[in-house]
Amino acid sequence: MSQFRIPGKGRVKHDEKVTFSFDGRRYEGLRGDTVASALLAHGIHLMGRSFKYHRPRGPVTADSAEPNALIGTSRGAGRFEPNTRATVQELREGLMCESQNRLGALSFDLGAVNDALHPLFPAGFYYKTFMWPRSFWDRLYEPVIRRAAGLGRAPSEVDPDRYASRYLHTDLLVVGGGPAGIAAALEAARAGVRVTLVDETPEMGGSLLSDPEVEIDGQAAWDWLAAALDELRARGVRLMTRTTAIGYYHQNMIGLCEKLTDHLDTLPENAPRERMWRVRATRVVLAQGALEKPLVFHGNDRPGVMLAGAAQSYLHRWGVKVGERAVIVTSHDSAWHAAFDLAEAGTKIVAIVDTRAALADELRAEARVRGIEVLAGHTVTGTRGRLRVASVTVNPVENGRVGDPRMLHCDCLLMSGGWTPSLHLFSHTKGSLQWDEASRTFLPGRMTEDCHIAGAGRGLWGYLDALSDGAEAGAAAARALGHAVEPTGFAVAHDRPGTGESHKELPTDRRSHRVRAFVDFQNDVTAKDLRLAVREGMRSIEHVKRYTTNGMATDQGKMSNINGLMIASDAVGKAPPEVGLTTFRPPYTPTSFGAFAGYKRGATFEVTRATPIDAFAEANGAVFEPVSLWRRAWYFPQGGEDMEAAVARECLATRGGVGIFDASTLGKIEVAGPDAVEFMNRMYTNPWTKLAPGRCRYGVLLGEDGYIRDDGVIGRLSDDLFHVTTTTGGAARVLNMMEDYLQTEWPDLDVWLTSTTEQWATVALNGPKAREVLDGLVEGVDISAEAMPHMSVAECRVAGFRARLFRLSFTGELGFEVNVPARHGLALWEALMEAGKPHGITPYGTETMHVLRAEKGFIIVGQDTDGTVTPDDAGLGWAIGKKKPDFVGKRSLARPDLVAGGRKQLVGLMTEDGAVKLEEGAQIVLDPDQPKPMKMVGHVTSSYRSATLGRSIAMALIEDGRAREGETVHVPMPDGVVRAKVTSTMFYDPDGERLKL
Amino acid sequence: MLLIHCPYCDQTLPEAEFAYAGEAHIARPEDPSQLSDEEWRDFLFIRSNLKGPHFERWRHVHGCARFFNAVRDTVSDRFLLTYRAGEPRPDLSTPEAAQ
User: Does A743 reach chain B within 8 Å, measured CB to CB?
Assistant: First the structure.
């Protein structure tokens, strides 16, 4: 039996041992223990080192607010988690945990030199010190100093666990399973409301678990609790433990993170580790209770110094005495009850030191009965002990004067600075806070959501008040949901009501520069740091917070915010509500990235769109590239070819014979209806009225600002039907834009828009042999050069399938695009491959497509344009229907900025050395010898090696580029300046002879 | 996540089904060529950027796909009301609108 465990006491299973290790040493605990309670049962308080000063620290709480006892936990490869609160992590068989932020052993940390040097690390230390010299950033500050100050190490392996996510709709969500929350859930469930009750701990009950002496309705607290939970279950209430409400979002959406496996000895097959719930609740009851505040005095962070409420929890929930000799120092009645309970359990209470001079007679009487010395109107001026508190110095305070010290020997110091309502979730809703002068604390004020706040969360104290208030909140929620109810009353015996006082740092007789009184334990912020920040000009609490980092650690200021505000407001000389509290933000407690990501990782990170021909590419060794959500065949390497070799072969085969390309990802929109041609005239720059059915045209789409948004070949199938193609990535955007104009600007037009991208599979055949491949497969249309000239479209059958056959070219070669219903795409592809075999048909991917189009100077919207390029800039002035009265973007083409000189225009670039390929995105200058920063006149948009031309080619946007044709420009690169000549973008077959086959 | 009422579907649905589409009641001029450069600039770029009730367009893009108008309070981020495209701009000072 561990020395500090009381046999039979607490809610742990005394007959079920669980072994675990801490810093490599094996320990035994009990089922139901947390790491903290199990270590405390062995008398171990020292569990970590502090963030900045490496001071020894032990647990100060018994719950999720814990700032000190942060550990790394592990259950094998990839399953390492840093910064886990030892007070929250449940014991499991074989759990491996380690302390953090130490150089060497936990009991002898070399980093503790920082503590001796503490005058060098004042508030704003980072801002003051890490400024100069600049070279120290890389060599000293980042690698050495930042590593010395910190939390746990991040895991380096991929997380093998699964994370789940679910939606939940409920009439009433109750957050917090303490007395107020349970009373609210009971009341609402009895009225017939669908209720969900959540609590972050493994067990419902909240403070009742730490106060078994209380009697409710004639039953002992734990019996009442068991009966209440049974009733809730019987009434169909969803009870969720180990479930933290991490954030409260708009319109009663609450995020819940449910931990499912961290407490289990063995991992169930395929079970998710955590599950994120997105709950939409019609009403919400927040019953989160209150957080106990530490007192701020010199040495208040030593291991063994702990919140009185935490000591009471360790005693009653886990059957653990936190020490043999305790001194209580408090400004609130609640700590007295903790003292009495500990005394009962055999801990020697050396003294109860209360900052208040006037004390309740009942408390004094109870102390007297137990023979406990009471020191009223006293302060604490220091503690001693290297790795554990050994003594505390207390002094009387009279009329603001600190009297003579007295030393009390102890092995634990239990403090309470009163309680502050847990306002985090309420604060997420942007509900306003109200300062309560009587209790000197913030209470929830105006609500913005359909919620109720009950119990200690709105400043009430004592079980009768908490239960009654919870029942009232549950009844109010039920009434709001249309149920008639009157809340039931409760009878409570042995209640523990109480009051207290709030403090800034406690008065002391020490010289101010020798006081180390911690406010934020996790970030090592002292009262002196806060006062220094105010002296140095920080007035807003938000500035004080950021300058000192008070409240910015992973505990989100649960313990430090209110104490920090008291001190800052005193230093500023304003009342606390005028200084204000910093905003709490989600998540309430640290939440794993896995829980947020849920299923969205790996293959299910986002959808992958595959074309009907994807299976061929896969089977034929294609290398794929992502294009928006599509995966497209990039190139088809053969026999160990690299990308450059494969692309060169694919290009030459297409220009010399015939290439085949899967163009199914092209966006396709059907524009149909009596007003289709008028709609097209208004949307696209080109004129459409005279385009005959059976013919195609290259269309340019502008935004209303006059810049190119999209392009594509558009075929007119009949008077009232257009087959519009868009860029692969632009399909949804273009349809959205068309719908916008059709629905809101021109609702009078009789037009229907239908996305057909996924209905058609599209196969492009390019090259001088393209017609020969197609010839025997086409029925119902003559595809000879005379009958089907360039830029034609026909409905026919290809390889037996209904088809829309386009003659067009994105390569400069004789080209056809065959569209068949998507389900026949692969069969069509295979038929074309078969028919092309005698002609050496060669599949090519997107890279070859890009090279072939660049050789012809065809643009890719979004690569050669960037949202600030007009048709004229891109050399597409010819595509504008100048006689049309209006189209989207037309007026903007006359905007002063768009007609002014000096615009960047798309041109070709040929490097002087054809073996040198420019880098896409590289900046261009006219004079490479000018002083820096140089005047950049443009950038390279596309750049490739052209096998056809036997050299590199590039396109670029350059100021007044077309007027510079023939001039030499310069591209400064890290390894030298590249010289290039400005040319036309038509690198190959400028007269289009090859289309005339 | 906000809940938004689609005036065409007549259902209140999660924000994820909708897409924002800019300020409402800015009609494209009948004949843009008649506008001065300044007038056209104002149409293209100048927006009210209000603190408080803001008239704006939304699209029920993963639902009925219709564009509609909404009044949203930019401080509380609450939707005050939604109505169909083409309907007149509601007068927020009337008691019905205040509901």
Answer: yes
Query: Which pair of structure tokens corresponds to residue A860?
Result: 């890719």
Check the CA dihedral A886-A892-A895-A898 and report its sign: negative
B28: which chain A residues are within 8 Å (Cβ-Cβ)?
704, 745
Residues of A in Cβ contact (< 8 Å) with B89 = none
Q: Residue A95: which domain range?
A: 1-159
* A890/B28 touch (CB, cutoff 8 Å), yes or no: no
Tell me the per-residue pLDDT of A327-345, one tens digit each, with 9 for 90 and over: 999 999 999 999 999 999 9
Give yes or no for B83 touching A (CB within 8 A).
no
Cβ within 8 Å of residue A924, ≥6 positions away: A936, A937, A938, A939, A940, A956, A958, A969, A970, A971
Q: What is the distance between the alpha carbons of residues A926 and A818, in angstroms, rounded to a whole number?
A: 46
Q: What is the distance between the alpha carbons of residues A291 and A309, in angstroms, rounded to a whole number?
A: 10
In a domain, A85, yes or no: yes
Question: Which residues of A fall within a CB distance of 8 Å from B78?
Answer: 250
Q: Which of B2, B67, B77 sits opposite A744 (nearest CB)?
A: B67
Partner-chain contact A704 B61, CB within 8 Å: no
Q: Is A884 on the interface with B (CB under 8 A)?
A: no
* Helix, coil or strand: residue A232: helix
Residue A138 lies in a domain: yes
Radius of gyration in angstroms for the set of CA atoms belonging to chain B, rounded to a whole number: 15
Q: Which of A535, A537, A543 is nearest to A579 (CA)?
A: A543
Q: Under an 8 A CB cutoff, do B40 and A892 touch?
A: yes
Let me know if domain B3-26+40-84 sits in CATH 3.30.2270.10. yes
**Domain-by-domain residue ranges, chain B?**
3-26+40-84
- Report pLDDT digits (tens) over A16-56: 999 999 999 999 999 999 999 999 999 999 999 988 888 99
Chain A residues within 8 A of B64 when measuring between CB atoms: none
List CB contacts (< 8 A) between B86 and chain A: 744, 747
Helix (H, G, I), strand (E, B) or coil at A218: coil
A430/B1 Cβ within 8 A: no
Establish if A647 belongs to a structural domain. no
How many other C-beta atoms lie within 10 A of the C-beta of residue A119?
Answer: 7
**In this complex, is the C-beta atom of B86 within 8 Å of any C-beta atom belonging to chain A?**
yes
Query: Which residues, 6 or more positions from A413, have their beta carbon under 8 angstroms from its beta carbon?
Result: A302, A304, A305, A306, A326, A327, A328, A329, A383, A389, A392
The pair of structure tokens assigned to A835 is 């028919």
pTM: 0.90
CA A870 to chain centre: 38
Q: Give yes or no: residues A808 and A748 share one domain.
A: yes
The domain total for chain A is 6
Preferred mutation among A744, A882, A899 to probe B, highest tally of B CBs within 10 A: A744
Domain end residue (candidates: A579, A596, A631):
A579
Cβ of A740 within 8 Å of Cβ of B59? The answer is: yes
The verdict on ipTM greater than 0.85 is yes
Instruction: Compute the distance between CA of residue A641 and CA of residue A653 in angstroms, rounded to an integer.
Output: 15
User: What letter represents residue A961's amino acid?
Assistant: G
Q: How many Å apart are CA A60 and CA A305, to the nearest integer?
A: 7
Output the 3-class SS for A698-717.
EEEEECCCCCEEEEEEEEEE
Segments of chain A with pLDDT less than 50:
none
